[in-house]
Amino acid sequence: MCCRTARVATTTTEGLADAAAAQAPGTTGPAPHLILVDGSGYIFRAFHALPPMTRPDGVPVNAVFGFTNMLGQFLTRHVGTHLAVVFDASRVTFRNAIYDQYKAHRPEAPPELVPQFSLIREATAAFGVACIELDGYEADDLIAAYAKAFEGTGGQVTIVSSDKDLMQLVRPGVQLLDPIKQKPIREPEVFEKFGVTPDKVVDVQALAGDSTDNVPGVPGIGIKTAAALITEHGDLEGLLAAAPQIRQPKRREALIAHAELARISKKLVTLDSDAPLPAPVDSLLVRAPEPGRLAGFLREQGFRSMLHRMGLDGDANADSAPVSRPRHAPASATGLPEPAAATAEVTPAADAAPFGPYETVTEAAALAPWIAAAREAGVLALDTETDSLDALHANLVGISLAVAPGRACYIPLRHGPAQAGADLLEEAPKPPPQMTQDEAIAALRPLLEDPSVLKVLHNAKYDLEVLCRAENGGVAVAPLDDTMLISYSMDAGRHGHGMDELSLRHLGHRPIPYDEVTGTGRARIPFGQVALDKATAYAAEDADVTLRLWQALKPRLRTERALALYEQVERRMVAVLRDMELAGIKVDGAELARIGEDFSQRMVTLEKEIHELAGKPFNVGSPKQLGEILFDEQKLPGGKRGKAGAWGTDAAVLEDLAARGHELPRRVLHWRQLSKLKSTYVEGLAAQIDKRDGRVHTDFSMALTSTGRLSSTEPNLQNIPIRTEEGARIRRAFVAEPGHVLLAADYSQIELRLLAHLADVPSLREAFAKGEDIHSRTAADIFRLDPDKVDREARRRAKTINFGIIYGMSAFGLAARLGIGPGEARGIIDAYFSQYPGILEEMERLKAQARETGYVTTPFGRRLWIDGIQAREQARRGNAERAAINAPFQGGAAEIIKRAMVRMPAALRAAGLSARMLLQVHDELLFEVPEAEVEATAACVRAVMEGVAELRVPLKAEIGHGANWGEAH
User: Where does the 5'-3' exonuclease domain lie (predicted)?
Assistant: First the structure.
C-alpha cells in the first residue's frame, strides 16, 4: 500500500466510440440528452491554472493543453446523445446597444492567450465535437437557445458550467453541471445561491447588478436583499410599482431613483433563448473522432504524452480504439488535469521514455544489475509497498526502484497467491517465487546507506519509518531527496502535493489507480494478493514517476528561490519527524479512564439541568430536538431553518444565543464540549495507545497546510483546548517515563513579534525589546492611557485586537468578541491603525502582493499561494485577502519553529544530553528529559529556540517541566 492521492480519469478513443452509438431524438436507443459545454469558461480556467507552455515552434499552448485534456476527460465521463462546445464569437453583442458600458471595463485577453483561441476550436473539431458560436451573441445566449430547442423535442439538457448567469435556465428538463465539483446544479442549488427559484433569478440579478460585467443594478441592494424583495413583490415590475410604499427610506429612494437602471439591467442579464441557431440540433449528434485527425492535431501541438495515453502514438492500435482501463477517481480540486510545471515553461518531450514495461525481480542475481546501475547513475528512486498506511505497524510487501526514466523494477517480498481464480483450483495455490525480506534488505542496505548515491522518495518519512523497522536492524536511508517536499517548498497553498497530482501536473502522465489493481469495496484484495505482473506495473511506476518528478522539479528550486528553504529546513525535517513519531509519548490509561468517568458524570448533571431549563426531557445530542425546544417551544430569536426544514443549532447559533443571556444554549455548548473531548481524546486516545510501549504515535503531515505548518493526525494532538480546565485535565494524562520529566518550550507571542518585525511599529518593537507586557502597552497607546492606568478590560480589548488584526478581523468580528457595538469596535480599530499606521500599510502591501503575484512571502522567503484572491465573489475574495494578511505570520512562525527543530537534535547531542523531542504543537515543543538533565536541557533548548532567527525584536521561549504535560505548562 502506498500513500497516493486520488487519480483522474483518462481519455481513450474507445469511450468516444461508445458515445457515437447514440441516436437522434425520436429514434430507438438512448434517451435524447444534449450536453452543452461552456467553452469560454474552460478556456480561461485552463489558461490561468496552467503555467506557460510552448509547442516546438514556439506558439503558446498551455490553454490548448488544458482544454484538450479537459475535453477528452469529459467525453469519457458524460456521454449524451448530442454534444456541443459553445464559444463567445466577439466582445460586442446586442447588449452593448442596450447599455454601452456593458463589460466595457473588461481587459483585453493576454497576448499569449490570443493565438490559442483558434487552436482550441481546432481541438474541438479534432475530437469530432460541434463548435458553436455566432457574432452578436454571447455563448450563454446560444446555450439558452439550444436548450429551449432541444427541450422542445422532449430531450434532456445538461449545461456544463458553473456560471451563475446560466442558473436562470434551470428547470425540470435542464440542469447545470459544475465542471469543478462534478456536481449537478438544480433548483435547490439555485435557491441556495440566489434565494429564489430559477425563474426569478433575472429579477434578483437586475436589482443586485454585477460588477464583473458592469451590470449597474440598484445601488445598495445585494443578492440577499434583492431575493427578499422579489419574494415579497413577485417580480421586478411588481417591486418597482410598490417602491413608493417601501418603509426603509434609503431602499425606497434607491428603487425610485434607479428604476430604469433596474429595467436595463434585467435586459442585460436575461439570456436570449430565441437567438438564431448556427447549426441545426440534429448536427450535434455525438460521433467518434477520426483517429488520424485527432492524432495529427495532438502531434502538431507536441502533446506526446497525450498521444501515448490515448493510444494514438503510432503503435499497432493507433487506428483503432485501445482497450480501455477502468479509472474511477474524481477530477482534481480545480477541475483541471494540470500536467505542466507550476511556473516553469514546459514543452512535452517528443522522446520521453514510456512508462513501462517494468521488470519483476524475484532473486538476488536479478537484483545485482539494478544495484550496479544505481551506483553508476549516482541516484536511485525508491518506493515501498506495505500492508498498512500506519508506518509504525506496516509490513513490507515489496520495494520498487528506478534508475532512469522508464527503467524501474519491483521486488516482491510478501506476495501470497494471486486471489483471482484461486478458489477454482483443486490444490491450495502457492505463493509466487520471490526474495525474502532479509535477503532483499541485506542486498540493498549498502546501496541505501551509501552516501555517494542519492535516494529519491515521495513522502519519504513514511518509507523511512517502514525501513527503520525492517528486520536485522533496519535501514538508515541517506542521503535523500523528497519530491513531495520539493513541490511543497515552492507551491504551498497552490495545489496538492500527492504523487498522482504532481505527475499529472508536471509530467502529463496519469499513474495507474490503486483501485485498478486491488479492486474496490468488498471486492478489494490486499496488495500482497495482487498478481505480480499487475503489482509490478503499479509499484514500479511509482518509482519511475518519482524519479521523473525529481528531474523536473529539483532544478526549479533555485529559480523559484526555494532551495535554501528545502535544503535547510524541509528536507532536514524528514529525519527529525521520523524520530519523533517512532518515539511517541506515554499516556496514562488509568488517568484517561478517570477523566472519562468524570466527564460522563458531568454530562449527566448537565443533561438534568438542560432538561429542567427546557421543561421536559429530550435528547441533548439531537440537533433536531434541540432546535424544536429552542425555537418552537421557547420562541428564542434568531432561528433559521435548513434545507430539510430543521432548525439550525450549530455552535455559532448557540454561542449567539448564549451571548444574549440565554442559559439553556450555554449549557448545551458545555455539554457538547465535554462530549467531544470524551469521544475524541478520552476514548480516542485510549484506543490509540500502542500496546507494545504504552505510547501514542501521532503522524505529522508535512505538506498539507498552505502556510507551512505541520498538522497532526492519528491522533490529532494539536486541537486539545489550551485554556480550559478540561483541556488541562487531558494534558495531565500525557506522562513521562519513570525517572524522566516532560519539558515544554513555547514561543511567546511569536506572531505578534513577527508583526512588529514586518511592520514599521517602533513602539511595539521597543515594548518587546524591554520585555514589557505587549497588550498593556498596546492598550496604553491606542486608548491614550498612562501605563499604570491600564486596567484589565483595556488590556483585554487590546489583546483581542492585537491577535485579531493578524487574522484580518472586521469591526463586526471585534464587536462580537468584545460584546460591544460595531460602531465602538470600528472606533477601536481606527485608533489602532492611527497609532500604528505601519501595520495598516503592511496589510495593504500583503493584499496588493497577493493580487499581483498570487502569493505572499514569509519573512524568510517562502511563497504562500493565496487561493481565490482574484475571485469574482466578494465573500471568497474577502476570505482570500484575510488569508493573505495572516499567512506570513502563521507561515513565519511555522518556519521559525521548524528551524529550531532541525537544529535541536545536534545541539542536544553536542551538549551531551539524552533528551528526546516528542511533539510539536504549533509554537510549542515537548521533550522527555532525564530528571538529572532538566536544567541543562532547558538552557540548551532556550538557546536554540531564541537564536534560530534574527528579527527586529527578540525571540522568547517560555519553558516549564513536570511529571505530565499539564504540569509542564
Answer: 31-287
- Domain stop point among 826, 858, 889: 889
Domain CATH number, residue 654? 1.20.1060.10
C-alpha separations of 813 from 646, 825, 876 in Å: 27, 9, 17
Q: If we measure between CA atoms, which residue out of 726, 710, 737 comes closest to residue 672?
A: 726
Half-sphere exposure at residue 680, Cβ-oriented, CA atoms within 13 angstroms: 17
Angle at which helices 62-77 and 39-49 cross, to 10°: 130
Number of domains in the chain: 4
**Cis bond leading into 715, ω under 30°?**
yes
Tell me: do 101 and 57 sit in the same domain.
yes
Range of the domain at 651: 593-696
CB 156 within 8 A of CB 169: no
CA dihedral 251, 256, 260, 262 (to 10 degrees): 20
The band of 344, judged by pLDDT with boundaries at 50, 70 and 90, is very low
Tell me how far apart the alpha carbons of residues 140 and 150 are, in angstroms, rounded to a whole number.
15
Instruction: Please determine, for residue 729, whether its predicted confidence score (pLDDT) is greater than 80.
Output: yes
What separation in angstroms does the CA of 199 have from each of 169, 190, 239, 269, 786? Answer: 8, 10, 16, 13, 62
Q: Considering the entire predicted model, what is its pTM?
A: 0.64
Q: What is the mean pLDDT of the chain?
A: 85
Whole-angstrom Cα distance, residue 757 to residue 771? 15
Q: How high is the pLDDT of residue 341?
A: 32
> Are 417 and 554 contained in the same domain?
yes
398 and 539 both lie in a single domain? yes
Question: By mean pLDDT, which of 376-385, 485-494, 638-647, 753-762 is the weakest?
Answer: 638-647
508 shares its domain with 639: no
Q: Identify any residues that bridge with 159 across adjacent strands, giving them in sequence order.
A: 36, 176
| Residue 910 belongs to a domain | no
Residue closest to 322 by CA, chosen among 306, 305, 309: 309
